[in-house]
Design goal:
single chain; four-stranded antiparallel β-sheet; 33% strand
Length: 93
Amino acid sequence: MALLRDFIDNIFNNPPICVEPPRSVKVHYSDVGTRLEAYNVRVYYKNGQRKDFTFPIDNDHWKIVSSGKAYNRAYAFYTRKLEKIAARNEKTK
């Protein structure tokens, strides 16, 4: 029964096969100059699609999410995806 569940999961849930580490997204503004706005993590899936996950920084009014906090969230997401990929690769061996 587990083989059937893994087969269906592999086809319909589209597992990730590769993930890139967090990279910074900088935007140039005419009044404040170049500013770090977010961190992106790009994930590639088995069917050839890719998706960018964005972890924004709150640079404006309340500064709730600092640059360090956004990077930590992006890096934690990156490591979770790496663990998922490694677990899937171990199952398929």
